[in-house]
């Protein structure tokens, strides 16, 4: 992985219909020295499968898969860890 200059934290819960657009936007940025930390907050939809699909295509994606729903603030804090 290149020298990371920016970390992008994306908390995910029940956003399947928007997730591809979000990840396409982040992955296609012209600035490449980023890590993309996606925190799946135990989402009940197909968000996790979409995240794993993108993770296979882009090595900058880091998945944090929480085992129980903890809410947006806590999910962001987990991503910062």
Written overview of the protein:
- By secondary structure, this protein is of the alpha/beta class.
- The chain has a single domain (6-80), classed as Spore Coat Polysaccharide Biosynthesis Protein SpsA, Chain A (Alpha-Beta Complex).
- It is built from 3 helices and 3 strands; from the N terminus they run E-H-E-H-E-H.
- A 3-stranded parallel β-sheet has the order 1-2-3, with helices on both faces.
- It starts with 5 loop residues before the first strand and ends with a helix.
Which helices and strands appear, and what pairs or packs with what?
Blueprint: E1 6-12, H1 16-27, E2 34-40, H2 47-57, E3 61-65, H3 72-80
Parallel strand pairs: 1-2, 2-3
Helix pairs in contact: 1-2
Q: Give the count of helical stretches.
A: 3
The domain tally reads 1
The largest pleated sheet is described as:
3 strands, parallel
Secondary structure class reads alpha/beta
Q: Uncertain spans, ≥5 residues at pLDDT below 50?
A: none
CATH superfamily placement? Spore Coat Polysaccharide Biosynthesis Protein SpsA, Chain A
The CATH topology? Spore Coat Polysaccharide Biosynthesis Protein SpsA, Chain A
Shape label: globular
How many strands? Answer: 3
Along the chain, the helix and strand elements come as: EHEHEH
CATH hierarchy: architecture: Alpha-Beta Complex
- Distance from N terminus to C terminus (CA atoms, Å) equals 18 Å
Rg from Cα: 12 Å
- Residues in helix, %: 25-40%
Instruction: Give the averaged pLDDT, no decimals.
Output: 93
CATH class, anyone?
A: Alpha Beta
Placed side by side, the strands forming the largest sheet appear as 1-2-3
